[in-house]
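Proteins fold. Shown next:

***
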Amino acid sequence: MADSTPITLNPPELLPEDASLSPIPQRIELKPAFVERYKDLLGDRYDAFLRHSLAYARKSIRVNTLKIGVEELRARLAPDWHLEPVPWCPEGFFLTYRHSRRFDIGNLIEHQLGYLYVQDAASMIPPVVLAPEPGELVLDLCSAPGSKTTQLAMYMGNSGVLFANDVSGLRLKPLGLNLQRCGVRNTIVTLNASRHLPRDFDRVLVDAPCSATGTIRRSLKTLQMWSPGAVARMAHEQRSIMEQGWACLRPGGVMVYSTCTLEPEEDEGNVSAFLDRHPEAQLLPIDLPIARTPAVTEFMGTRYRPEVSRCLRIGPQDNDTEGFFVARLKKGNATA
């Protein structure tokens, strides 16, 4: 029987004193199966992945252009905050407090007014890739708590119709509050309604629930909850959700599938299996100014379709953000 004794780490010991990363100051326990799996998956990237996963994430915001212009908000924040543009999202910024250490961005009046949304820079990618246009019919199938939904509405200019769906009534509460705070007016909120939704959406976002191994630095509970069995169950659930989103998409429409996990079963494995089931689906390349990790084409004896190399995979070590996976799929040959 394999040794199941947890491996205990002290994050500050993983980082040199002059490192730009700020380690989380508590001891961490890693499951041996997790260590073995991620060393196999990442190879020489494993140490960098671990250092970033056990360090605090950079704070980032997205300007909500439904309420304020990008340059106007920059000017409001400039006296107290240094803003560094997020390369892949024109409305996104990494920010640091000029006068001391401060992280309570949610207490800013600009946040309360809906001028900005506190959002990890990697989380901004799926709406950027989906690229909804004003006047379109768009579905966010797993929308709560609303970071991507409000971003989609922003790109749509509050025109067209945006369906914001989720499976939990409790999760719809923060979604509704965020939509209201951000001044979103083109959204219909639905509860577990995929079977009853229209079948002619121009664009569909499936930001699926996942094992979240790209977000360890935000929630250390991810390490406690992780197991190979949980990954397999999650991958099965995600395939069902992908099918629901695809059924709602019109011919020629675009669906983005995304997760915040680095598990190939939930990422490239699901996309590969989806392409097997749907010969009418085209997997489109994603061209963004972002550092990325090559997509996984084979893992643990399973070989995926070569097209999955077009997917976007980033680890926390690539851009000092959360880890994320994004795939862009087109339905048939009609013009999107």
In short: The radius of gyration is 20 Å. The CA atoms of residues 89 and 124 lie 7 Å apart. The chain has three domains: 7-53, 60-119, 122-331.
